[in-house]
Amino acid sequence: MWRFTPPPSPSSPPSGLVLRWTFDTADVSANAVADDSDNSGTGQIQGSYTLVPGKLNQALELNGNAYVTMSASSDSAVGLNNSTTLALWINTESKGTVALLSKYNAAGTGAGHIFRLSGGRPQLVLGGMDSQTYPPMATGTVKVNDGNWHHVTVVITVGEGIQF
To answer: Model pTM?
Structure first.
């Protein structure tokens, strides 16, 4: 079981924000998740879920193999051509390897990335051209699968590297 919730809403979205799903009641309708950025990245919930209390406001509890997806053409480019930050709040006790955020081209091959937990630690796996620029995989040192809320973040800085 996974619970996801974002940081609090600023009065206006920060500059450069690509995607923001709050999972608050007002932003979830049937199986759709509204994007609070200006980029229209509506997500579609696949599988069983429940809206539950989160770290801030509501959270999306994903049951079994549930996940949120969106069209490959509805957000930013796949490759990490700019410095990028991927961040979310999670609450899990999972000991396996589970994807948190992923982005690949429409064919599922080539450039892309998977931000996941592996053995309870945050991990970033890169594919295609991105893996030639950065290490193909980087793993954080802190376990976050203790059943408490954790803000997990990976920062990819062009020309410098990857930090958790």
So the answer is: 0.73
Last residue of a domain, one of 54, 76, 98: 76
Distance CA 145, CA 122 (A): 10
Give the integer Cα–Cα distance in Å for 130 and 133. Answer: 5
Residue 51: give the domain boundaries. 1-9+16-76
Q: Per-residue confidence of the chain (164 residues) as pLDDT tens digits?
A: 455 555 555 556 667 777 888 888 888 988 888 888 877 788 888 888 888 888 878 888 888 778 888 765 544 444 555 678 888 888 889 888 888 887 766 555 556 778 888 999 999 887 665 555 566 778 999 999 999 999 998 888 877 778 88
Q: Which two tokens stand for residue 116?
A: 């996941």
Claim to verify: residue 118 and residue 55 sit in the same structural domain: no
